[in-house]
Amino acid sequence: MKVDGGITLGGDTNNAIGMTAGLNGSETRIRCYGNMYANAYNYNSQESKKKNITKFDENVLGILKNSELYSFNYKNEKDTDKKHIGFIIGDKGGNYKTPIEVISQNKEAINSYTMTSILWKAVQEQQEQIELLQKEIGILKEGKNNGEN
């Protein structure tokens, strides 16, 4: 990654403790190659920081059903016994079923905020289905208890 006017700590992308921060074109980036720890990672979610706000009513269960997860190792890891599980973005011609909805704007990463929001909506959709099925089961049981077949 070419960074204009940034700082680098710990070396290049093969260094497990490397961190680069700076401006890349019009995008400000901080990249860390290795594990990061924090008590919390907070996404900007205030109305004042957003625009074009509309309610998202699309069905997301299809997004989940049409995607695939993969196990893999990172090339810069020394311990290759530990497998990671996640999405793959096919930047070298691979054909992976990674939903476009979770791919970052620059197509280099997964947007975990969007992915979590989609999963949240999927749970809501499944809960609606569960409640509908429970209601139908109740109606069937009531009919059976009243002597209906």
Explained architecture:
The protein has 149 residues and is α+β, with helices and mostly antiparallel strands. The protein has a domain at 1-37. The protein has two helices and five strands. It has a three-stranded antiparallel sheet, with no helix packed on it. It has a two-stranded antiparallel ribbon with strand order 4-5. Strand 1 (4-9) and strand 2 (18-24) form a beta hairpin. The longest helix has 34 residues, at 112-145. The mean pLDDT is 84.
Instruction: Tell me the number of helical segments per DSSP (H or I, 4 or more residues long).
Output: 2
Distance between the termini: 69 Å
Overall pLDDT = 84
**Radius of gyration, in angstroms, nearest whole number:** 22 Å
Work out the helicity level. Answer: 25-40%
Give a count of the beta strands, DSSP E runs of length 2 or more. 5
